[in-house]
Specification:
This protein is an alpha+beta fold and 119 residues long. The protein is built from four helices and six strands. The longest helix is centred in the N-terminal third of the chain and has 9 residues.
């Protein structure tokens, strides 16, 4: 997503690009939703080619759409004995226990484990 939309400043962007950037749908599908009258901007029916600025509220079928959060890459040198899993049935210490969401993450998602062989 454009930095201007993430940081709350900058130029307006086309509504279909905004919806696509949020991950809600493709640009073409966004155009179809607008044509069907299912998209609103600040409570008013959206029109084709409309631009949205930061701070405007966008909704599809009455449900608010917000930009995706910024992606964060964490790199961790996992200590021996710590496992890379969310399965707690064995009682092992996991990488989730070590990170303990201290960085303000409410949920860690999209984990990819990269074995040492790739370094």
């Amino acid at each position: 997503m454009r930095e201007s939309m993430k940081k709350g400043g900058g130029e307006p962007i086309r509504l279909n690009k905004y919806l696509s950037d949020t991950g809600y749908c493709s640009r073409r599908e966004a155009d179809r939703l607008v044509e069907a009258g299912r998209v609103t901007v600040d409570g008013r029916a959206a029109v084709m080619g409309q631009k949205v600025s930061p701070g405007q509220s966008v909704a599809v079928d009455g449900k608010g759409i917000t930009p995706e959060r910024e992606m964060v890459l964490l790199v961790m040198n996992k200590p021996a004995g710590v496992v890379c899993t969310t399965d707690r049935r064995w009682g092992d210490t996991t990488v989730y226990d070590i990170l303990d969401y201290q960085s303000g993450f409410s949920r860690l998602e999209g984990w990819i484990r990269i074995p040492k062989v790739f370094f």
